[in-house]
Amino acid sequence: MSSDRSFSTFFHVNNDQPKILILEVLVKKCTLFLLVTNLLITGAMETHEAVDFRTEFLRALESCPKEHIDNLKDMLKEENIHLHTEAGEQGKLPLLILSLKEKKSEERRPAVVFMHGTSANKEWLRPWLEAYASRGYVAIGLDSRYHGERADSKTAYQDALISSWKNGDTMPFIFDTVWDLIKLAEYLTHQRKDIDPQRIGITGISLGGMHAWFAAAVDTRYSVAVPLIGVQGFKWAVDNDAWQARVNSIKPLFEEARIDMGKSEIDKEVVEKVWDRIAPGLASQFDAPNSLPVIAPRPLYLLNGAEDPRCPLGGLVVPAKRAKTAYKKAMSPGNFKFVAEDGVGHQVTSFMIKESSDWFDKFLKPGNMTSKL
């Protein structure tokens, strides 16, 4: 999302009562909405650590419930297409869409959008997409900004973050990809005849969980959301000296800021300045205590690790409490759930994959939609 755009929009919660002004940042010709985490792989990670993480990651995805279909891969329709979300190279959005081949049925299907984490790409999500497609969903994966097809080097994402800090002309940490998700929602609801526009869910892991969180907050076309190990309290982490793990996941950015600020080490002031520069409002008006409640009454399930240093549990006490209150006021208390899995750090588990799968089935499958969306 380039800085030559300007926007301002209100969020509405419960009976269309305005609750919070969520954005006023910079963006021309378009009206926009905003607001997200990282995965465990960074440029500084050792190769064997990356391999171990990917092995565990894929094992979790492959545990996703699926229908037993002989020769499933032969029964899947695969689409590789590109949307244009704005001018410039990063405005080219690559999509991987999997669905069961049609049997001359015009019935619209539910869809789920899947978001990868830092240093990953849409291809990593293929086992997840296949499992959902086998169960009758249209499954959509995409490359977030400066990842996958949108990366021209291995350091493209880190380079973009540093450029954002120095120049302030882009927002590669969360917001630019949320813009893409808004444009994707337009495509899914207006151009796809195979998708039910009232039944579109979104999920993601780590950075992808942040994307899912903020996309659901700003765009009601995402009717169900399940962020995995992505939701955190950014301001709480700064105030409680619990920012180190998050900062270390994209440390080159903060080191550059430290140098520019004439500091001998990264401290609270550096962290605050960086967040405000690259993602204005992330640690204030758009933070979890304010942005989670606006998703009500749409179904929202937060799944985190109880020992996750990047998404400290203490930072979610107030956001979860406020969200719970919002869902009660919306007379949909059963549409909100928060689970922090015991003994789990910043990692996705088979439990999380199964829980998110059940949540989507509950709210997006015909016959299960008994709650107010």
From TrEMBL:
Q: In which domain of life is the source organism classified? A: Eukaryota
What name does this protein carry? AB hydrolase-1 domain-containing protein
| Pfam families documented for this protein | Abhydrolase_6
Domain AB hydrolase-1: residue ranges: 112-351
Organism expressing this protein natively:
Eruca vesicaria subsp. sativa
